[in-house]
């Protein structure tokens, strides 16, 4: 990448959005969201379904035009040329199910004008002549990621790349993500898995189209606390607190409530005849996201 490519992009970012807004009629899908991805950085884009993550990505890719604000790729407006320098894994993977694994790789290599001679991971090599529609989702996601790397991109955009696959496959994909970042590739990734989010260098949290928090995990959680409840009957405790319309969650068999007054919890359990040990603990990222999402209602 030349200096000219990065000079006009915030902080030399590979991808950037500045107050990007996208409206569909009276509905605002993305509302003044800003973010950037630098070389070697893994940025996580988080939010519930419908938060506007995919719409923001389509604007960055140049597949949708912002209603307001700006987006750039390698310091320029998104274009066919800038898309040739990135690797993209969409939610739907973008694979041809009626072609074999090897034919999908050759097709993508031809589109990017590169040779399709890179060695395949062992799992894909074993199914190289099978139709993509006949291999499992885990292998399909591995194939999509392999194709995205085939032309040695400078930026990776991954839209829920590990959704629906087993933990081992997720771990292997994240190993590959970290390898790319270590080599200087920028990564923008969306995920619903909080353990994956915690592997990112920086997070951008979206709710109802807006950016509600950004920064490292520790910055986002800050001094927000949760309350952990330990009783002899976690199921009865969970039921009593849920009936009282408190924001209760389960971590294994541990009952937790984010940003809730311990006195209110104690009173609720006392009325239900439940004795419990109640203590404050640091909030998790998921709990902080729940609080931020509720605040935007």
What's this model, at a glance?
This protein is an alpha/beta fold. The chain has 2 domains: 3-219, P-loop containing nucleotide triphosphate hydrolases (Rossmann fold), CATH 3.40.50; 222-295, Alpha-Beta Plaits.
Description:
35% of the residues lie in helices and 27% in strands. The protein contains 12 helices and 13 strands. The chain is globular. It folds into 2 domains: 3-219, P-loop containing nucleotide triphosphate hydrolases (Rossmann fold, 3-Layer(aba) Sandwich), CATH 3.40.50.300; 222-295, UreE, C-terminal domain (Alpha-Beta Plaits, 2-Layer Sandwich). The strands form 3 sheets. The chain has a 6-stranded mixed beta sheet with strand order 5-6-7-3-8-9, with helices on both faces. The protein has a 4-stranded antiparallel beta sheet with strand order 11-12-10-13. The protein has a 3-stranded antiparallel beta sheet with strand order 2-1-4. With 297 residues, the protein is of the alpha/beta class.
